[in-house]
Amino acid sequence: xxxxxxxxxxxxxxxxxxxxxxxxxxxxxxxxxxxxxxxxxxxxxxxxxxxxxxxxxxxxxxxxxxxxxxxxxxxxxxxxxxxxxxxxxxxxxxxxxxxxxxxxxxxxxxxxxxxxxxxxxxxxxxxxxxxxxxxxxxxxxxxxxxxxxx
Length: 150
Known about the structure:
By secondary structure, the chain is an alpha/beta fold. The protein has helices at residues 15-27, 38-50, 69-77, 98-105, 117-129, and strands at residues 7-11, 31-35, 57-61, 63-64, 67-68, 86-91, 109-112. α3 packs parallel to α4. It starts with 6 loop residues before the first strand and ends in a 21-residue tail after the last helix.
């Protein structure tokens, strides 16, 4: 699968994290857009639709001031025009019930921080190869997602 030119949205309130993720995805030939919060993320997604260059993948931090990443993912995945987006959630904690919520919403994968470059790339390939965006969320305590445990 060729990642060249793939539009990806990075949503993280931490500027250092955004910069690192932008560097990684740019290095893989993808076209990143980075935002610090939910409203800016939704604006970027709508701009992509309006310009006929829709964003295919969203790398989304779970914890941001004023924004819950899972709720933002819900907003993305329940909007018909954005439903084709694959969402990979990046989290630093295992909150009770989060794995079930993510599965129910159709979040493609959940990765524990700190995420390693190879781990992210592997999960991007897996997310993009899934039919119909089926959720592959497994146990938050594992660093790698078990895509066979649906």
